[in-house]
C-alpha cells in the first residue's frame, strides 16, 4: 500500500470518528423524542426505544397545555429570522456595492469603522441597546428583536471583498448599453454574487434562529418568546425531568434550520468554490 493511500485511509477514519461525535447526540435526541419518560430516564445505554410513542408530541401540541406554545414560539422565531435575514441581505448588499463601486465620501474611514466594529464583542453593547429600547417602550415587541439586526458589518465586509474581485468590465458593458447604476446592481451584480448572498442569508438566518441572550433579556411575555428561550425555560421548568418531551421539543425546533440548509446547500458549495478560485 502506497503512502498516499495510507494517508487517505487515515484521513477518512479520522473524519468518520469526528462525524460520529456530532451524529451520536443527534441520533440520541431523535430516538429519545419517541420514548416514554420512564424509558428515557432508565439507566444504561438504550438508544433504540422499546416501543415508539407519539405521546411526547401530543403533549406539546395539546390545547390545554398553555405553558408550552410550540407553534407560537416557532412562529415568532421564523418571523424574526426571516425579516431580519431579508433586511440584512438588502442593506448589506447595497452598502457593499456602494463602497466597492461608487464614489462614497470618506470611504476608507467607513471601511475602517466597519472593520473596527467587527472587533467589538456583542455583549459590550447589550446593556446600552437594552436601555435604548426600554426608553423607547419597545420591549416585548417584534421590533426589539428585529431592529438590532437590520444590518451586519460582517456581511458588508464579506460582500465588499467579493465585489472587489468581480470584473468591472461586465458592469461597464451594461453601462454602455444604457443601464443605470440601480439596474446594474439588480440585474448584473446580484445574480453573479448569488452564492455569497445566499451564504450571508443562511448564516444570518441560523444566527438569528439560534439567538438566545437578546430575546431572553428583552422578552418576558410567553406569547412573544422565541423557540430558544422556550426550550431553555422548559429545561428548568415543567420538562426538567421529562426527557422525552424535552427532546421532542428540541427536535421540532431544529426542523426549520435543517430545511434551510438542505435548500441552500448547493449555493453554499458554489460560494466555497468561488472563494477558492483566484
Write the layout of secondary structure elements.
Elements: H1 3-32, H2 37-40, H3 55-60, H4 70-101, H5 107-118, H6 126-135, H7 142-146, H8 153-164, H9 168-176, H10 181-192, H11 194-210, H12 213-218, H13 227-235, H14 243-276
What does this structure look like?
With 278 residues, the protein is mostly helical. It has 2 domains: 3-60, no CATH class; 70-276, Orthogonal Bundle (MetI-like fold), CATH 1.10.3720. The protein is built from 14 helices and no strands. The protein has helices at 3-32, 37-40, 55-60, 70-101, 107-118, 126-135, 142-146, 153-164, 168-176, 181-192, 194-210, 213-218, 227-235, 243-276. Helix 4 (70-101) packs across helix 8, helix 5 (107-118) packs across helix 8 and helix 9 (168-176) runs antiparallel to helix 10 (181-192). It is globular, with a radius of gyration of 24 Å. This is ABC transmembrane type-1 domain-containing protein. One of its GO terms (cellular component) is plasma membrane.
Number of strands: 0
Tell me the distance between the termini.
35 Å
Quickly name the level 1 CATH class of the largest domain: Mainly Alpha
How many alpha or pi helices? 14
Basic shape: globular
Question: Tags for this entry?
Answer:
single chain, 278 residues, mainly alpha, MetI-like fold, 2 domains, 14 helices, 0% strand, globular, transmembrane, MetI-like
Summarize the structure in short.
This protein has 14 helices and no strands. The protein is mainly α and 278 residues long. Helix 4 (70-101) runs antiparallel to helix 11 (194-210).
Amino acid at each position: 500500500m502506497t503512502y498516499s493511500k495510507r494517508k487517505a485511509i487515515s484521513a477518512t477514519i479520522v473524519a468518520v470518528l469526528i462525524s460520529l461525535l456530532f451524529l451520536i447526540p443527534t441520533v440520541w435526541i431523535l430516538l429519545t423524542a419517541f420514548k416514554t419518560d420512564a424509558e428515557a430516564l432508565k439507566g444504561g445505554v438504550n438508544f433504540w426505544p422499546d416501543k415508539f410513542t407519539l405521546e411526547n408530541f401530543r403533549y406539546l401540541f395539546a390545547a390545554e397545555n398553555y405553558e408550552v406554545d410550540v407553534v407560537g414560539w416557532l412562529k415568532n422565531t421564523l418571523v424574526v429570522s426571516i425579516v431580519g435575514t431579508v433586511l440584512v441581505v438588502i442593506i448589506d448588499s447595497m452598502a457593499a456595492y456602494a463602497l466597492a463601486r461608487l464614489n462614497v465620501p470618506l470611504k476608507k474611514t467607513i471601511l475602517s469603522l466597519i472593520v473596527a466594529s467587527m472587533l467589538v464583542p456583542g455583549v459590550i453593547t447589550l446593556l446600552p441597546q437594552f436601555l435604548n429600547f426600554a426608553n423607547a417602550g419597545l420591549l416585548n415587541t417584534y421590533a426589539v428583536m428585529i431592529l438590532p439586526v437590520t444590518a451586519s458589518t460582517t456581511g458588508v465586509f464579506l460582500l465588499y471583498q467579493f465585489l472587489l474581485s468581480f470584473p468591472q468590465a461586465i458592469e461597464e458593458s451594461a453601462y454602455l448599453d444604457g443601464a443605470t447604476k440601480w439596474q446594474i446592481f439588480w440585474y448584473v451584480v446580484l445574480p453573479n454574487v448569488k452564492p455569497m448572498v445566499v451564504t450571508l442569508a443562511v448564516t444570518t438566518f441560523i444566527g438569528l434562529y439560534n439567538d438566545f441572550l437578546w430575546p431572553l433579556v428583552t422578552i418576558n411575555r410567553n406569547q412573544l418568546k422565541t423557540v430558544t428561550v422556550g426550550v431553555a425555560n422548559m429545561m428548568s421548568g415543567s420538562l426538567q425531568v421529562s426527557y422525552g418531551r424535552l427532546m421532542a421539543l428540541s427536535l421540532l425546533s431544529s426542523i426549520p434550520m435543517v430545511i434551510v440548509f438542505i435548500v441552500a446547500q448547493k449555493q453554499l458549495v458554489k460560494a466555497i468554490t468561488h472563494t477558492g478560485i483566484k
